[in-house]
Amino acid sequence: MTGFKGVTNRSNDKLREVLIEASWFAIKLDPAMTLYFSDYCKKIAKNEAITKIDKNFFQELGL
């Protein structure tokens, strides 16, 4: 997936909600995602870090 820059303002609001919730769920269950999230939170705000987790989560799924 090249050129992925996170969630845009033009995207579907319902889809965005589902993606964010799936990422929070992945953070709670997957130790690797928890580590990514904690590293990102040291550098940026949580709401920005969750979009970074979205990217990693869906790249692992192959979407």
Number of separate helices: 3
Main sheet specs:
none
Q: What structural class should be given to the helix and strand makeup?
A: mainly alpha
Order of helices and strands: HHH
Q: Could you tell me the radius of gyration in angstroms?
A: 11 Å
* Unreliable sequence segments: none
**Percent of residues in helices:** over 70%
Instruction: Bin the strand percentage.
Output: under 5%
Mean pLDDT: 78
What overall form do the CA principal axes indicate?
Answer: globular
Domain unit count? 1
- First-last Cα distance: 8 Å
Number of strands: 0
Molecular structure report:
With 63 residues, the protein is mainly α. The protein has one domain. It has helices at residues 13-29, 31-43, 46-61. It is globular and about 30 Å long. The mean pLDDT is 78.
Question: Keywords, please?
Answer:
globular; mainly alpha; 63 residues
